[in-house]
Amino acid sequence: MELADEIVINAPKDQVYAALNDPEVLKQCIPGCEELIKHSDTELEAKVVLKVGPVKARFSGDVVLDTEGAPDAFSLTGKGNGGAAGHAKGGADVTLTADGDQTILRYDAKAEIGGKLAQLGSRLIQSTAKKLAAKFFKSFAEVVEERTPA
User: InterPro entries from the xrefs (predicted)?
Assistant: First the structure.
């Protein structure tokens, strides 16, 4: 499954990048996130509860950031286990482009799922993933814009 989109955030690029690396901001924005622990600058551990169709699962997983191209671009990879509901793994490439006082955030993500979740059908999985991504980025833009001095 692949997802790609872009959003415009009314904040300078350095603030957007800093927020993407702030566990408190991420925890606030990730749908269903119960816990987000930063183990290092590039390693995070997350606990997230998600409902996909009739399946509700608590996932625990690890995320690794590759900040080599920062602050213009970075990528992340992660894998999570939802017990009987299944498992997921994937990654995303994110680019940040300054546009005056705004920042254009583009992402290109790929994910693979297995277990019960995989049996739900690709349409339901794809639409749920799109909704979750849209919800995350909408929340993220709002939080960053609130923190940006006028």
Answer: CO_DH_gsu, START-like_dom_sf
pLDDT digits 0-9 by tens, 17-54: 999 999 999 999 999 999 999 999 999 999 999 988 89
Tokens of 20: 């993407």
Q: What is this structure's pTM?
A: 0.89
Edge to edge, the sheet with strand 73-81 lists 2-9, 102-114, 87-99, 73-81, 55-66, 43-52, 33-38
Q: Is the dihedral of CA 77, 46, 61, 44 positive or negative?
A: positive
Q: Which two tokens stand for residue 12?
A: 């300078």
Whole-angstrom distance, CA of residue 103 vs CA of residue 94:
12
Q: Domains (ranges, CATH) in the chain?
A: 2-145 (3.30.530.20)
- Is residue 36 helix, strand or coil? strand
Place of tokens 């191209």: 69
User: Three-state SS for 4?
Assistant: strand
Per DSSP bridges, beta strands 33-38 and 43-52 are antiparallel
